[in-house]
């Protein structure tokens, strides 16, 4: 017996269509599986920052200082007494200081202003008339004579301190003094390596004689002068 196939029952007739449909279904399932996402059921979590409070110390609260209220104003007197002024007050008459044409104007004589002499120190190197050392009055070069007489005075009165000799102290003492406007010596200052040497230098300067004061523009002025005194052991 020969079997006959029904053309309607032929499965290979629409096989390409079925293949495309199956391929589309498989791709849809794969895409759905890749895009599938799951979420937790409990969504009650805190999304705020977890900041630990590191301030363990207690911050004292600021106390508000209460100022006392101002005292109440004094009570007004109940009865105000009115005192009548029985005394007569004399009116003060202010006279005008303006001068009229009839008044005579007194002429004021010229007021003489006395010049105040200022103490000016003029150095020995620039003064016009140098101080005159006793014995240099007739010298042509009084400046050089002054220097020479000063050196003679130092050599004549020089005496080395014994305590400085025993200690082996030597050096130069710078002596500064001022020849005053009356020719006397003042303002003596010393600077040296030892107090004993400075004391001896001051003694030598104190023995200077009174001089003729120096003059600047014909007026006596103070003249500062400085000289070194050498102390040297032999």
Automatic annotation (TrEMBL):
It is a single-pass membrane protein. InterPro entries: TonB, TonB-dependent_transducer, TonB/TolA_C, TonB_C. Pfam families: TonB_C (PF03544). The chain crosses the membrane at residues 16-34. GO terms for cellular component: outer membrane-bounded periplasmic space; plasma membrane protein complex. GO terms for biological process: protein transport; siderophore transport; transmembrane transport. Residues 145-234 form the TonB C-terminal domain. GO terms for molecular function: energy transducer activity. PROSITE patterns: TONB_CTD. It comes from the Bacteria. Belongs to the TonB family. This is Energy transducer TonB. It comes from Costertonia aggregata.
